[in-house]
Amino acid sequence: MDIIRVAIDGPAAAGKSTVAKIVAEKLNYIYIDTGAMYRALTLKALDSSLQLGAEQPLVDLLHHTDIELKQSENGQLVLLDKADVTAEIRSQKVTNNVSYVAKHPKVRIEMVNRQQALAEKRGVVMDGRDIGTHVLPDAEVKIFLVASVEERAKRRYEENVKKGFPSDLEELKEEIEQRDLIDSKREAAPLIKADDATEIDTTSLSINEVAEQVLTEVTKVA
Ligand code: C5P
Predict the structure, then answer these.
(1) How much is the pLDDT for 1?
(2) What does the pLDDT read at residue 165?
(3) CA nearest to 7, candidates 33, 26, 25
(4) Is 13 labeled as ligand-binding?
(5) Whose CA is nearest to atom 14 of ligand 1?
(6) Is residue 172 one of the residues assigned to a domain?
(7) b/e 92-125 (16+ beta carbons within 10 angstroms → b)
């Protein structure tokens, strides 16, 4: 089978990372969670008390920031300047602020460069918001996952309950809607389906059914 690149985009909590991980494992490809990179920078910016509305300080910070996505036995670890921040980047504070960091064009240019470098060597499954449109515009497979906001909030809620995190369904729905709004309305590389992407509505599908559909798209080109 040829080595190919799989781009998976879509709104918040549409199941992108879960599906991407399954597909990467099946194909023995690397999985790159680009959202984790924006989250790591957001965490560092918040810890440094940076004003998230100002672009240049964030760009300067990023230039002095090492973000590594490391495969481990327990899944992918996110290392920020060598420290494990895998759990911390999922905090409510980071989630509520990440879209304000990700909207800056110069931050995105640097992130996209790093992401493209990660995808150079071998087969990848990469998930995010602009993978099919900007990061890997020539990706052999492009998927755009969607689901109703109610279903996405419900899935996140159930995930939180399983992990023992306190959670409020209505709040989750509002946070998801707010993030989608900022991500879709920004000028630089907004969340949008690439013209040549295959859209999959996951609202009434299981994770495995979605992964199967993505793998079917892969077999068409591989
Ligand atoms: O995928 P995840 O929900 O972790 O992404 C967090 C945020 O990072 C998104 O809401 C978006 O603001 C930003 N992001 C982005 N472009 C990507 C991946 C994530 O702007 N390729």
Answers:
(1) 57
(2) 81
(3) 33
(4) yes
(5) 35
(6) yes
(7) eebbebbbbbbbbeebbebbbeebeebbeeebbb
d(CA 153, CA 174): 9
Residue 220 is assigned to a structural domain of this protein = no
Q: Examine the predicted complex and report whether its ipTM is higher than 0.85.
A: yes
What is the CATH classification number for the domain harbouring 89? Answer: 3.40.50.300
Q: Give the pLDDT score at 2.
A: 67
Range of the domain at 138: 5-213
Q: Is 12 annotated as a binding residue?
A: yes
* 218 domain residue, yes or no: no
pTM of the model: 0.96
Q: Which one of 62, 69, 100, 129 would you pick to mutate in the ligand 1 pocket, going by the greatest count of ligand atoms within 8 A of its CB? A: 129
Could you report the per-residue pLDDT of 53-71, keeping only the tens digit for each? Answer: 999 999 999 999 999 999 8
Pocket test for ligand 1, best of 17, 93, 144, 183 (most atoms within 8 A of CB): 183
- Residue 202 belongs to some domain of the structure: yes
Question: Residue 30 phi/psi, 5° resolution?
Answer: -90, 150
Q: Which portions of the chain are predicted below pLDDT 50? A: none
